[in-house]
Every structure is written in structure tokens, then in C-alpha cells.
Amino acid sequence: MDSPIDTQDTQTKPADSGNPFSSVPIEITISVGKARPLIRDLLKLGKDAVLPLDKNVDDPVELYVGDRLIARGELEELEGDQKGQLAVRLTEVANLQDGLA
Predict the structure, then answer these.
(1) Which of helix, strand or coil describes residue 95?
(2) What is the DSSP letter of 82?
């Protein structure tokens, strides 16, 4: 899904405290790439097999809510007490207010 997204300021914006849904968690899926092996090759996969993706390590990742592309970003590793945990630094963010009532 290579749909363009409208970019806006990527800084965190304050939550709408008047909206009762503002504190409901939502799941975001981060897509790092796709693999398209032949079924015969897929059936041969086992432990320690390597499945190449269609992206490079430095390529942007895409963030989705359901099927809707909401942002793009770069993978990075957290520091300090959370060292080793992956995170995403947003580089493009869709204007999520469009089309919402």
C-alpha cells in the first residue's frame, strides 16, 4: 500500500480531554516489509532460515491502523533502561482530522 499521506507537524499534540474516546488504546501495526516466496520455498523453511524482505534496513517503515496508512517513520533502538527495545521515530504523519466527524 503506497498511498501518499498528507504530512503535518510530527510533534506530539495534546489529547482532546473533552472526548471520552481520547483515553481508549488503539493498536498500530508497523510494516517493515513484505516477502513473496514461492510456496515450494515456503514449505522448505525451517529454523534459522532467512526470508528476504522487499525493504532495506534504512528504508522507512509504515504505520497502519487497520488498513489505513497513518504515518511513516524510522526504526530505532531505545536507550537507558529500555535499551534493546525497538521504537519508531515518526517522519511523516497523516492529517487524521480529515474525514472524522
Answers:
(1) coil
(2) G
Rounded to 5 degrees, what angle do the CA atoms 98, 7, 83 make? Answer: 115
Quick: pLDDT tens for 67-96: 999 999 999 999 999 999 999 999 999 987
Residue-wise DSSP of 33-65: ------HHHHHT--TT-----SS-TTSPEEEEE
Give Cβ neighbours of residue 71 (< 8 Å, ≥ 6 apart): 5, 62, 63, 90, 92, 93, 94
Instruction: Give the single-character DSSP code of 24.
Output: S
Tell me the pTM.
0.70
In the block, which residue shows the cell 500500500?
Answer: 1
- CATH 2.30.330.10 for domain 29-93: yes
Total residues belonging to the chain: 101
SS3 at position 80: helix
Segments of the chain with pLDDT less than 50: 1-2, 7-10, 99-101
